[in-house]
Design brief:
The protein is built from 1 helix and 25 strands. By secondary structure, the chain is mostly beta strands. The protein has one helix at residues 201-204, and strands at residues 12-13, 25-29, 31-33, 45-51, 57-63, 73-78, 81-85, 88-89, 97-98, 105-109, 113-117, 125-131, 135-142, 146-157, 208-213, 218-225, 229-237, 244-250, 261-267, 273-279, 288-289, 296-303, 306-314, 333-340, 357-361. The protein folds into 2 domains: 12-157, Calycin beta-barrel core domain (Lipocalin, Beta Barrel); 201-375, Cellobiose dehydrogenase, cytochrome domain (Immunoglobulin-like).
């Protein structure tokens, strides 16, 4: 599945080259990398590819029964274009429907591989699917070689039955058995919460607590002190206090990191608590220290198997001041990340976070506008 505001919902420009015949069929597998972070094998995505009666093809996806049922996105060809059909509904927001369309080009197709890019140079975006008899690899790169989405599917069937297309809905193909084409499949309706026993009491004292990723149990907590202060904590389960750094960035330019106001925290091998105010200068790459956001009452705590970072800041500080109640469109976003901590002081560049990072829209005054209740962690 293709995700994120800029790149999840696509209309893909292509040429009329044929597809590898092995790609037709039904596939299943859990994303190891996505804009929301990693997913567990219990959150498998089903990916289906069929020929269309107009000589084109169609792809659609849905999750297994542990997630939202009858949830589908479609990608289908008419002539020389591959279209996205779907809505950004109940994903970043529980009440806003946002269709997004972006054009891409088919760069190459061989016996077992298809590649699309934003331009022949492939400098900003590439989507590659490689198939064999038993597996299908789907990889999306942003500012290559940064991995945005990766999923390895296992074959469920070789079904290559032709799906009829009558051309009556040029913007949305509703043909049997595809009866529903809204709701992003990455919306988890029945999250299997992994609440860690004996969560430290000081984290439960915040007014708000939401789990942003279920696989690594990344949580964000906050309380407002209006008119201009916010107290924030972020946490993950950890084996020791020294193993990881954890970070949150406010006002992201997702899928890029540039201009985000980042707070990163960790404990050095000698026991120093480091909570750093940082920003990302480049679209991708390690952040640097800055004083544009002044942090107060900082702490890094390890208790009951939970590593947490706490800080206070002004809502009005930074490249991207935090609005109290932003409009639902385009909303206000944050990014988060977790990485292996190799730092020995409160300076230097952190190790790369790899796939343990993600993106969310947030509303600090009315989180219920952008989060469903199943994400509540207290």
């Amino acid at each position: 599945m293709l995700t994120s505001i800029a790149f999840m919902l696509l209309i893909l420009g292509s040429t009329s080259q044929s597809w590898p015949s092995l790609i037709y069929g039904d596939w299943t597998g859990a994303p190891t990398t996505s804009p929301l972070g990693p997913f567990s094998q219990s959150q498998a995505l089903n990916w289906n590819v069929r020929p269309l009666s107009n000589g084109g093809f169609i792809m659609w996806d849905n999750f297994t029964s542990t997630l939202i049922t009858n949830s589908t996105q479609q990608f289908y060809s008419i002539g020389n274009t591959l279209y996205y059909c779907g809505w950004l509904e109940n994903f970043f927001s529980t009440s806003v429907v946002v269709p997004i369309q972006i054009s891409f080009q088919l760069i190459s197709t061989t016996g077992n591989t298809i590649v699309w890019c934003e331009s022949p140079s492939c400098t900003q975006f590439s989507w590659t699917m490689t198939v064999n008899e038993t597996s299908l690899d789907l990889t999306i790169l942003l500012s290559p070689p940064v991995v945005h989405l990766k999923n390895t599917f296992s074959r469920v069937s070789n079904n290559a039955s032709v799906i009829p297309f009558d051309g009556t809905r040029p913007n949305c193909l509703r043909v049997p058995p595809l009866s529903k084409t809204s709701d992003c499949p990455y919306k988890v309706l029945e999250m299997q919460k992994k609440l860690t026993p004996n969560t430290p009491e000081y984290l439960l004292s915040y007014d708000n607590c939401y789990q942003l990723n279920d696989e690594i149990e990344y949580r964000i907590y906050w309380s407002l002190s209006l008119p201009d202060m916010i107290s924030v904590a972020i946490s993950i389960p950890a084996t020791t206090e020294y193993d990881n750094w954890i970070a949150v960035g406010f006002g992201s330019n997702f899928p890029g990191m540039n201009t985000s106001d980042i707070v990163m925290g960790y404990v050095t091998p000698t026991g120093s608590q480091c909570v750093r105010s940082m920003t990302a200068v480049n679209y991708v790459g390690a952040p640097i220290d800055t004083d544009i956001v002044q942090l107060q009452n900082t702490a890094v705590t390890y208790s009951n198997g939970i590593l947490s970072v706490q800080f206070e800041r002004k809502l009005s500080d930074g490249h991207n001041p935090i609005p109290v109640d932003p409009p639902l469109v385009p909303g206000y976003s944050l990014i988060w990340a977790v990485g292996n901590n190799k730092l020995t002081s409160c300076s230097g560049s952190p190790a790369y976070h790899s796939h343990t990072r993600g993106y969310r829209v947030i509303n600090v005054m009315h989180p219920e506008k952008v989060f469903d209740n199943y994400r509540l962690c207290k």
